[in-house]
């Protein structure tokens, strides 16, 4: 029983550690997941802001599968001044959803709102995103010669390769071609499902081997008998109690005598005949006149 409790506690600890790692990886916020994704420097007849003005704009992409808040970080067009524009905290705009975007307008009009920067973009300039400490650079891009109304960005969201995009896509996917999913690619490579079957069987057998190794090492480390742990509990068979001592001869003689007397009715004889004798008086004293009233009451 103690071995079973020990194994259960070990399993709980492993499960808790796995959940912490999974949840921590799934929900931890990291500013390093942010990328400068697309930039438009010369905006003659392109995207307009909420004020109806056309200015250069910057798209920041969250490559993570969890929400990242860009509030408190810095955008700058001058590497020598990394804290040029501080992005205010506590606004829903700065909270970038998983695999989503936020736009900033380089119009040198910060009084118009959080998304409006205090500088303008220039050809041949640069752009950088810094961590909230003002020293750690998260991402940067060098802006060469630009084309009017043609954005310069990553050919795939969060990718490495940069170039001029066929379409400006503020707040949307940079790649505007036909997207082929991983499932479709795999289906084209394995139309009959043979590879899928092999992979599935490999995963199953790998898991069985891993379980065998884990249980075997658990037995070595903690001295737990796994076979005994998962087998049916043994039923303890009670030893037969020794027979009681034989009855002595005196007791047997007394019992025999009592039975003999009961069978032969050896006891006092009791007469059950009732005798009724006639009394001398033939009248009942209760009806005698001498006991009645002598005078009539008046």
TrEMBL record:
Top-level taxon of origin: Bacteria
Tell me yes or no: is Cell membrane among this UniProt entry's keywords. yes
Protein's UniProt keywords contain DNA-binding: no
- One GO term of the biological process aspect: sodium ion export across plasma membrane
MF GO annotations: sodium ion transmembrane transporter activity
Q: Which UniProt keywords apply?
A: Cell membrane, Membrane, Transmembrane, Transmembrane helix
Q: Which cellular compartments is it found in?
A: Cell membrane
Q: Where are the transmembrane segments?
A: 192-215
Cited InterPro entries: Lamin_tail_dom, Lamin_tail_dom_sf, Na_pump_deCOase
Question: What main location does UniProt list?
Answer: membrane
GO CC annotations, alphabetized: plasma membrane
Pinpoint the LTD domain residues: 24-154
What name goes with this protein?
Protein containing lamin tail domain
Q: Which organism is it from?
A: Lentimicrobium saccharophilum
Phylogenetic classification of the source organism: Bacteria, Pseudomonadati, Bacteroidota, Bacteroidia, Bacteroidales
